[in-house]
């Protein structure tokens, strides 16, 4: 007998089939609407990883991954906007009890009353410091450029990261709106995920008080836990792959292609999640990178097959095949670090088409 799905997996399924999937092509062209965000907020999924004491579900990692697969497969743009929320939630959950910003925000974020964005990938450019934080008037002053910030106009608050003059990574919360010292660019027009309302942010003396700070720690301490994270395959890659394979179930010969790729997907997914569940995140990095790269291979094959099977109609902007192929392209660079980029390029260079390389 199989166990019934976790309630959040069922809710993700309903959100996907009733709200996200039916409008995915339109959303891809016009942007994630506020109504989708309202539905995400109501679903309980924003609290999937949040502590129960604050109104979240503290669900097991397997549930977190499955809900991400379901949302990403239905509408990658909506998945990505809400995906930003989970890093701020985890940062607050790990902060010491009684910290003012934790007590103020963790409950509303866990219960889905507020949606958070995050601006922190720029930290990984260290020792280059795109966002510098200095002590000023008993608080913190932010200067520099955030190259990527997703969900502008959709999220309520943002967690902003920079590096202090003492070489610490500092994370603080502020409202996600234009304010003195914080100016957004126009929304970026991108090959994929334009719908995610991604902007860059110019910071010129944004001042935040001490009680907005969620984390302040030596850069190396932060980087040591951050570095291994993105060596794991993203559940979104498996979600997009499965959605592309579903488009192939139309009849031979596409059906046979789907059968073969589905078996490959099952195998690489099992391997990737076994590694993700390994208790020491900094171990077995080579294997994690190999599984991540294989996951990209299967995704590329699946989204390509969906386009091939669709013929000329697959080029229509209303076709799910072209949308999934572009979303898959975005996932190739999402959360990319220098290590991931090197491993992926290495694998692409090593694997020549059969009969071409010896
Ligand atoms: C559409 C879109 C939306 C995004 N939204 C967000 C968001 O909301 N919040 C967010 O935080 N991020 C966001 N990102 C950033 C994303 O997660 C990745 O960090 C980013 O795609 C990596 O590529 P890059 O071009 O920014 O980094 P690059 O500048 O190309 O750097 C890639 C990696 O190289 C290394 N590196 C870079 N410069 C140096 C240097 N000088 N010395 C040593 N190593 C270096 C770092 O490890 C870095 O991670 C978004 C990206 C995209 C494409």
The topology string of helices and strands comes to HHHHHHHEEEEEEEEHHHHHH
What is the fold named in CATH at topology level of the largest domain? Butyryl-CoA Dehydrogenase, subunit A, domain 3
Mean pLDDT across all amino acids: 96
Strand content: 15-25%
Write down the overall geometry: globular
Coarse structural class: alpha+beta
The tally of domains stands at 3
Pfam families: Acyl-CoA_dh_N
Protein name: Acyl-CoA dehydrogenase
InterPro entries: Acyl-CoA_Oxase/DH_mid-dom_sf, AcylCoA_DH/ox_N, AcylCoA_DH/ox_N_sf, AcylCoA_DH/oxidase_NM_dom_sf
GO molecular function, one term: flavin adenine dinucleotide binding
What does it look like?
By secondary structure, the protein is of the alpha+beta class. The protein folds into three domains: 7-110, Butyryl-Coa Dehydrogenase, subunit A, domain 1 (Orthogonal Bundle), CATH 1.10.540.10; 116-218, Butyryl-CoA Dehydrogenase, subunit A, domain 2; 230-350, Butyryl-CoA Dehydrogenase, subunit A, domain 3, CATH 1.20.140.10. 47% of the residues lie in helices and 16% in strands. The chain has 13 helices and eight strands. Strands 1, 2, 3, 4, 5, 6, 7 and 8 form an eight-stranded mixed β-sheet that branches. The model has no long low-confidence stretch (mean pLDDT 96). The structure holds flavin-adenine dinucleotide. Residues 84, 117-121, 124-125, 128, 147-150, 190, 193, 198, 333-338 line the site of flavin-adenine dinucleotide.
